[in-house]
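Figure 6 in text form: structure in, sequence out.
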């Protein structure tokens, strides 16, 4: 099977202009690839660059060196230096990102927030609504909240609404940044189930999780990001 994401020689440095121009070389010479249905866990101590790598893969940071190729609509696309329009197209249908935090949009009700990724792909609204309701139910969001805007929800409720939204549609490549952080056991199990369903549907996953039980449940391979072994997956 061909990989859906291939990373070669990836490097990222931060220059701290307001702190005497100190340069932090956070990522250096990273190489890895991930196949459909596979889950790669980013592993390394705090500060090793795990979040920086996810943000670089998503296109939030421009790398200093290297290549990130993603299979989008049947073609491998180079993401480093891609036009913003291209990056947005890849993000719309190929590359998903699950963070712990919901970007709250004022006055948009919870059910619409969750359905939006499906509607933006022009999927059937009735099916999208059923899927959104099912996800919210599984993640323990009471139906009394579905027609309210999530701005006033608790932190944990917002996190679960965000997870429901993230798993609303199929993503060929899905980046997960601590998806189960601060969830209780029941909700953590639901997220692990959703991750397993995404893998069974062929998503390639790249994840950070500080929770050993979650890592054990979802990992196929680990990318060791400790400084001495920056350049290979094990
Ligand atoms: N926007 C930024 N500007 C400057 N330095 C940054 C920036 N983002 C991250 N860094 C630095 O890069 C290094 C890696 O940070 P990163 O958040 O990627 O680590 P991490 O492995 O995800 O850590 P943790 O497990 O603690 O979340 C840290 O030393 C951090 O200070």
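Output sequence:
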């Amino acid at each position: 099977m061909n990989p859906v994401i291939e990373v070669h020689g990836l490097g990222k440095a931060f220059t701290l202009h307001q702190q005497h121009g100190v340069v932090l070389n956070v990522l250096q010479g990273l190489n890895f690839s991930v196949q459909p249905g596979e889950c790669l866990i980013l592993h390394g101590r705090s500060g090793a660059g795990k979040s920086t790598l996810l943000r670089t893969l998503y296109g939030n940071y421009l790398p200093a060196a290297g290549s990130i190729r993603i299979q989008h609509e049947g073609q491998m696309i180079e993401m480093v230096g891609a036009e913003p329009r291209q990056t947005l197209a890849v993000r719309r249908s190929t590359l998903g990102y699950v963070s712990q935090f919901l970007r709250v949009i004022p006055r948009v009700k919870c059910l619409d927030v969750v359905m939006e990724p499906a509607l933006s792909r022009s999927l059937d609204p009735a099916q999208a609504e059923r899927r959104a309701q099912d996800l919210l139910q599984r993640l323990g969001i009471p139906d009394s909240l579905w027609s309210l805007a999530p701005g006033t929800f608790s932190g944990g409720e917002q996190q679960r609404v965000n997870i429901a939204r993230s798993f609303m549609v199929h993503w060929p490549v899905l980046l997960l940044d601590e998806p189960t952080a601060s969830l209780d056991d029941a909700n953590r199990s639901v997220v692990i189930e959703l991750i397993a369903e995404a893998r069974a549907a062929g998503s390639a996953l790249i994840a950070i999780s500080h929770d050993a039980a979650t890592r054990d449940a979802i990992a196929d391979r680990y990318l060791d990001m400790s400084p001495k072994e920056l350049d290979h997956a094990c």
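Caption detail: The beta strands are 5-16, 22-34, 39-43, 65-72, 75-78, 95-98, 173-177, 204-208, 221-224.
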